[in-house]
Amino acid sequence: MKPMDSEVLREQGHIMVDFIADYYKNLEDSPQDFPVLSQVQPGYLRDMLPDSAPDHPEPLKELLDDVSKKIIPGLTHWQSPSYFAYYASSTSVAGFLGEMLSAGLSVVGFTWLTSPAATELEVIVLDWLAKLLQLPDNFLSTGNGGGVIQGTGCEAVLVVVLAARDRIMKKVGKTSLSQLVVYASDQTHSSFRKACLIGGIHEENIRLLKTDSSTNYGMPPKSVEEAISSDLAEGFIPFFICATVGTTSSAAVDPLVPLGKIAKNYGIWMHVDAAYAGNACICPEFRKYIDGVENADSININAHKWLFANQTCSPLWVKVGTLINALKTNPEYLEYKVSKRNEVVNYKDWQISLSRRFRSLKLWMVLRLYGAENLRNFIRDHVNLARHFEDYVAQDAHFEVVTTRYFSLVCFRLVPVDGDEDKCNERNRELLATVNSTGQIFISHTVLSGKFILRFAVGAPLTEEKHVTEAWRIIQKHASKFIHKKKY
Ligand SMILES: *Cc1c(COP(=O)(O)O)cnc(C)c1O
């Protein structure tokens, strides 16, 4: 037996593709067999598997039986058409084929030399995507910027914090990390705090500015400006603003135009975290939400969230050189010569890791096998389904839509009775638990201004109108039970 044998690969690869195709078919045709939120208890798997690895080979068929019987029950079915929690992690046939090709070729393009095509395709495909997003020229490799595919949004935010820190340290000369200050809203993704801490920024210098319903939870530019002025007066060095387009809680949008002006005035790096909603900006009607990106220093989207690019794929665009200045290393064993040395990209200097997957292949396949117009329509379909759900909520007096919806997320809740917010929170919490315990749908929650809120996020690739209608029926059914019981 050899670890790689093309005939075994052919035979078993076909079996695996059939297995995966059946999975998707069954998710659609037999939803009762696939509770969307896994209903297993912690530790369930230990009793089902042996204590140690086998000494001798086992047949693939037996293994796949185990997947069906032991693993799949322990999955939360993110690709189920009735998955509406968090944000989706959208898959597609093209994305899957791209993953398969990338896994199959298994090249490691850390420098241009180690696979010229892996590097050059990434540069080109990220220019394509930048054009679909109408990003300014200074984020294109043909301008004075360029893109890089990070593994995740968290990694994207981390590397730009490091690049911004490098830029400010070089500018102000020797300074103490304790002087450096960053700004974001209290709705910013938790990855920002983690990135700052890894970057040595002091926790007490992370200014998370308060938001409320008056701006639909977007970051108020006035608070940013006031915070910067007061920090400067106290001798701090403001160097980074993280603006979010489509926050994780409620898909709020920070106003990039005024924030960008502030960042520019004070020479502060502005990053735009558009992990979820940035994908929608390939549609002209949503592009306005990233207006102002011209004044940003970097922007990232998660193509694995809502551009059908299967886990994981987080394109990040920056001005040329900025990441390299902070992250470049030059060990002798990676040295090589090309004729025009300065014209090649070495992606190892744009990221944390050395090794990297050939992810651009997947993005290239998604863009080519669907084309921009279909991708726009996939996104529009999801937004329309969310609108549909929002209409249902708005028509039921027991419920309310809590925030203005821009994309495919609806934030809603059972309304309070007699102004009793505590009891209202309790009922919504109970409704969430009940609905999810049915296994028929999976939704998630957040808290905004002390209110416990239910989140209904459309984005799974199999979701159709009938699934949204059914989800609303299930929510209403379980709500009505205690609406009546508790004399609403
Ligand atoms: C999902 C998300 C992230 C985190 O992205 P990962 O790829 O999971 O690391 C960061 N910011 C926002 C706004 C997100 O929606």
Automatic annotation (TrEMBL):
GO terms for cellular component: cytoplasm. GO terms for biological process: amino acid metabolic process; carboxylic acid metabolic process. Keywords: Decarboxylase, Lyase, Pyridoxal phosphate. The modification N6-(pyridoxal phosphate)lysine is found at K305. Its cofactor is pyridoxal 5'-phosphate. It holds the Pfam family Pyridoxal_deC. One of its GO terms (molecular function) is pyridoxal phosphate binding. The keyword Lyase applies. It comes from the Eukaryota. Gene3D superfamilies: Aspartate Aminotransferase, domain 1, dopa decarboxylase, N-terminal domain, Type I PLP-dependent aspartate aminotransferase-like (Major domain). Coiled coil: none annotated. Belongs to the group II decarboxylase family. This is Tyrosine decarboxylase. It comes from Brassica carinata (Ethiopian mustard).
